[in-house]
Each structure stands twice: as structure tokens, then as C-alpha cells.
């Protein structure tokens, strides 16, 4: 009887996990995210985050299975980057039009498995950005490719 209870408990947990994944998938698609799945989990997310608020970034920040994220929009800031800190499995980040300050670069340290960081048209509206924040990337020992391209101002 104990063994049956254990099996039933496992089945309930798996069912709940599947339901949560399906609910998150639907919610992510509602905010315009394009998703790639592998093995039943979300591994890649691409979205234009123009107009996103805290709630949208929090939703994305809960997707701990993500390996790759590509976001475009000036709503990507140090504050919203903090909301993505739960994505410790990220290996690739591509941001277009992000407005992360030099000091805000310290928040990239939340992604210890990061191998590729691509920033296009970064900090266009940040007069104070001078690139000194790149020093915060030094602890990311897996980082092998860094792209910073596009006219800043």
C-alpha cells in the first residue's frame, strides 16, 4: 500500500508540473514570446519586450529550464535584469536595445553557465555608459563569446 501511495504521489507531482508548464507556456505566448521546447521543457525564448512591465519579466524569470533567451526592447534594464536572476541555466543571452548601465552589468553574474552574451544597440540612451561595467563579467568563467555591436549614440 505504501508503494502505491508513493507512485500516486509521484504521478500527482508530475501531473501538476505538466500543468504548470502548460500554464506558463500559454502565459508566455500571450505576452508575445516564441518558445522552443525540448524534452517537454522550455529551452529557448525569443520576444520583443517593448511595453513589458515587472510581471512579464517575473514570468520569464521563473522559466528555470531556459538555456537561451533573446529579448529586444528598451525595457531591458538593470532592474528588469534582476528579475531574470532565477535563470541560472542560461548559456546564451541576446539583447537588442537594452539599457543596462555599467553598474547594472553585475547582474549578469546571476548566469554562471553563460557562454555567449550578445548586446546589440546597447545603452543608446544612457549618456553615462562608458563600458567600464564589462569588468563585472570577469567571474563568468564559461563566457567564451561576447558581442557588443551597434551605435551607442
Molecular structure report:
By secondary structure, the chain is of the alpha/beta class. It has a single domain (2-149), classed as Alpha-Beta Horseshoe (Leucine-rich repeat, LRR (right-handed beta-alpha superhelix)). Helix content is 27%, strand content 22%. It is built from three helices and six strands. It has helices spanning 2-30, 54-61, 78-82, and strands at residues 34-38, 41-48, 68-72, 92-96, 116-120, 145-149. The longest helix has 29 residues, at 2-30. The radius of gyration is 18 Å and the shape is globular.
Descriptive keywords:
22% strand; 153 residues; six-stranded mixed sheet
Named CATH architecture = Alpha-Beta Horseshoe
Number of domains: 1
- Helical fraction equals 25-40%
Q: What does the oligomeric state look like here?
A: single chain
Average pLDDT confidence is: 88
CATH topology, by name, is Leucine-rich repeat, LRR (right-handed beta-alpha superhelix)
CATH class: Alpha Beta
Provide the β-strand percentage band: 15-25%
Regions with little confidence, pLDDT below 50 for 5+ residues? 4-20
Q: Which class best fits the helix and strand makeup?
A: alpha/beta
Strand order of the largest sheet: 1-2-3-4-5-6
Straight-line N-to-C gap: 69 Å
What order do the helices and strands follow?
Answer: HEEHEHEEE
Give the helix tally: 3
CA-based shape? globular
Q: List how many beta strands DSSP finds.
A: 6
Radius of gyration: 18 Å
Amino acid at each position: 500500500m505504501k508503494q502505491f501511495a508513493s507512485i500516486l504521489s509521484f504521478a500527482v507531482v508530475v501531473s501538476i508540473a505538466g500543468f504548470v508548464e502548460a500554464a506558463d507556456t500559454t502565459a508566455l505566448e500571450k505576452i508575445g514570446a516564441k518558445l522552443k521546447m525540448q524534452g517537454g521543457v522550455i529551452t529557448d525564448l525569443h520576444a520583443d519586450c517593448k511595453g513589458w512591465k515587472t510581471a512579464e519579466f517575473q514570468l520569464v524569470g521563473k522559466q528555470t529550464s531556459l538555456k537561451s533567451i533573446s529579448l529586444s526592447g528598451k525595457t531591458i534594464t538593470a532592474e528588469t535584469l534582476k528579475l531574470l536572476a532565477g535563470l541560472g541555466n542560461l548559456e546564451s543571452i541576446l539583447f537588442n536595445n537594452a539599457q543596462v548601465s555599467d553598474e547594472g552589468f553585475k547582474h549578469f553574474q546571476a548566469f554562471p553557465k553563460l557562454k555567449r552574451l550578445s548586446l546589440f544597440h546597447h545603452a543608446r540612451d544612457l549618456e553615462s555608459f562608458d563600458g567600464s561595467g564589462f569588468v563585472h563579467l570577469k567571474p563568468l568563467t564559461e563566457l567564451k563569446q561576447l558581442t557588443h555591436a551597434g551605435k551607442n549614440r
